[in-house]
Amino acid sequence: MVAARHRVFAAGLYDPIVAAVAAECAGARVVVDAGGGPGQYLAAALDAADQAVGISLDLSKFCARSAAKRHPRGFSVIADLWSGLPVRDGAADVVLSIFAPRNAAETARVLKPGGRWIIVTPEPGHLAEIVEPMHMLLVGEGKGQRLAAEVADDFDDVAVRPVRSSVALDEPMLVDIAAMGPAGFHRTREQLAESAATVVADGPVRATLDVTMTTARRR
Ligand SMILES: C[S@@+](CC[C@H](N)C(=O)[O-])C[C@H]1O[C@@H](n2cnc3c(N)ncnc32)[C@H](O)[C@@H]1O
């Protein structure tokens, strides 16, 4: 999953999302990436915030190892977000929750007043063209309402912004984009390659990136 994710990011497929997140981090001093995965978003955030240090938190030691190497001002901690974030009260300017589980109470605790929570969630249209043929996980319904409830208690100035683009995927990219998500755990690379070969039989396929970036300010 880590290797597939690196190749997808290196190919620039997620650039519009990475750029949107990084732009929100300008001026931050401490960025916490909760469920940071291999660390690409945190690295981009630290490039955009040249005074900042960053901490990636992830349950996976493979992700943590990768994130630790992504940026000279980036650190990595293996942590379960549901056991509390290993960060002092009010220490963070920004918390990122990108395609990752969200612990709203802990996020509120570690953010300083006025700090920003940046959340990226997939919309039902996200990669919709390839979800079924690649046996990827479907996005659950009602995520928007759930998110609104999570930010209600401790956050205001909530802004919701769609980030959409279209990407062309050849067979190896199709396999990687599926392998970087849950399909990478329940299907072998050979099975994914078999599905991908069918999808791109007539040439590269276009898929839509369709996510929502929500930013909320800690009261
Ligand atoms: C879909 S990935 C997203 C990673 C990264 N934010 C990105 O978009 O590239 C979700 C990440 O959350 C991590 N994760 C899942 N449950 C977690 C938990 N309870 N505590 C910490 N990390 C968790 C996974 O290990 C995985 O790296």
Describe what you observe in this structure:
The protein has 219 residues and is of the alpha/beta class. The chain has one domain (2-128, 137-167, 209-218): Vaccinia Virus protein VP39 (Rossmann fold, 3-Layer(aba) Sandwich). Helix content is 38%, strand content 29%. It has helices at residues 2-10, 15-24, 40-48, 61-70, 104-110, 128-131, 143-152, 171-179, 183-186, 189-199; strands at residues 30-34, 53-58, 74-78, 92-98, 111-122, 155-169, 205-218. Strands 3-2-1-4-5-7-6 form a seven-stranded mixed beta sheet, with helices on both faces. It is globular. The chain starts with a helix and ends with a strand. The mean pLDDT is 95. Bound molecules: S-adenosylmethionine. The site of S-adenosylmethionine has 19 residues, from α3 and β2.
| CATH architecture tag | 3-Layer(aba) Sandwich
* Pattern of helices and strands: HHEHEHEEHEHHEHHHE
**At the third CATH level, what is the topology name?**
Rossmann fold
Taking the sheet with the most strands, its summary is:
7 strands, mixed
Q: Tally the helices.
A: 10
- What is the average per-residue confidence, as pLDDT, rounded to a whole number? 95
